[in-house]
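quick one, two chains, predict together pls
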Amino acid sequence: MGFVQYAPMDTETVARVARLARLAVSPDQQKAVAGELGQILAFVEQLNSVDVTGIKPVAGVHDDALRQRDDVVNDGNCAADILQNAPQTMADFFVVPKVVE
Amino acid sequence: MSTLTDLNMQQLLVGLQKKDFSALEVAKTYNAAVEKAAPLNAFITTTPEQALKQAAESDARRAAGKAGALEGVPLGIKDMFCTKGVRTTASSKMLENFVPTYESTVTQKLFDAGIVSLGKLSCDEFAMGASNITSAYGPVINPWTGADPVHAARQLVPGGSSGGSSAAVAAHAVVAATGTDTGGSCRQPAALTGTVGMKPTYGRCSRWGIVAFASSLDQAGTLTRTVWDSAKMLEVMAGFDDKDSTSADRPVPSFTGACGQSVKGLRVGIPREYRLDGIPDYVNKAWDDGIAMLKNAGAEIVDISLPNTAAALPVYYIIAPAEASSNLARYDGVRFGLRVPGKNLIDTYEQSRGAGFGPEVRRRILIGTYVLSAGYYDAYYLKAQQVRAKLMADFKAAYEKCDVILAPTAPDTAFGIGEKTADPVQMYLEDVFTVTANLVGIPAMSVPVGLAPNGLPLGLQIMARNWEEETMFRAASALESAAGFSAKPPFRV
């Protein structure tokens, strides 16, 4: 399986990916960013030449399944700690802009 | 006691034990050293008062016969480790005011062993970079300047991402420092500053409380003056931790015990694919010298092949950004970190992240998001995972023929601040020799072996099999003693 044919990285794609990443990229930055991302993608395209027929993908380096902890409560009563670095709080809550009309 | 800062960790521990000096005296000396090293911009946050308090407590423990393994040793902590009550920025504007309410497992273990913390060391933003220039707190200056006028006239990078750590160790502003290594971030900066940089096997140290970059690659590591010092630190930092599901439940051997052991009969693999085009002759010469040193020490030199070497860097620059884009989704301007108010919640996310992350972090988030997005996932991410499996198979086959692998650490000596920034890929090539160890999980360390004709240090890298750090330390200490690298940078405290 090779790489899909993609259109060269353009400002439209940058805007779409930036939205997916919830990352503001201002219109005047889009062209420069498209150029940089295009260079990176052109570089990683070298992988096109590697044959991976029948190769099982790996997500990490050790084969063993991830260990799971017992499902027990081992902390709590630390609302102040959790909220300490929040930009905006009220009582024991994080405050966000209104999302429901 | 003007020479106190010239002592390495091993010598310092002896002196403390013999009561030649107290931990408090050492801490005072190093607080002054940290101040004197200010022009290097290696620290983001210094903690002189904490250092004095911890040193006094250390002296009390020693007097009570309760000295820990690193009792009274002043260290610098890379600003990727969360430290309770001490600001932890990951060199990002996003975390400018972030003060953790908890301690990372690795730093907790170091504190439990008696260290004194001098402060938090700069790095590339979220550890993404090879020069420390992506830090939101300004570049770190390499204390080395080089012999020729071209080099001497400009400021050089200390490597990255652990550039604050490498610069501070090289300048003797700290005895040693912690680092993190996702694609070479302990080893490459060590090579560029004449210091020792080490990453252990993936899973050897807990990642809990380390700011996450790419979770399948990240490991805690060390920047030290000697191989023994690195072994000593790793003995303390390593070990099982229930809070990291990838932490290995294995005993921690005596790594210091492996230092100085003979390498007679040890099979040292030389990967032929690491002879790259465009690498300066002096890098290859240093490599040849290293081969001769280990051969003279009794090792057997074996020609090996790692056929997929050229694919490692492209694999890395798919997998690392993919994992980073996922990990960095947590910075939403709601629970912690910078918030820039927007028109609505989505706009708040976008504005906060747009303002909080620097250009390299933004690029990696966008690349990562792209390669994971519908229609591209199989072509990029899945393919990279498959080639990663091939790389692992390469090493498995190579380690049938050899016990360790010797290779250059970095493709060249330190470069000038502002160089290699014309396009992002140029900087990525700095990691060409180092990323593979992270992709396959193996322990690897860089040892300084000499100076290039430009007067700047060169390092060589020893890679061992998974969980065989002892073999790595054995080979690295043999290389260290044969090379006898004793050059020091012109800027020293």
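Chain A is about 35% helix and 5% strand.
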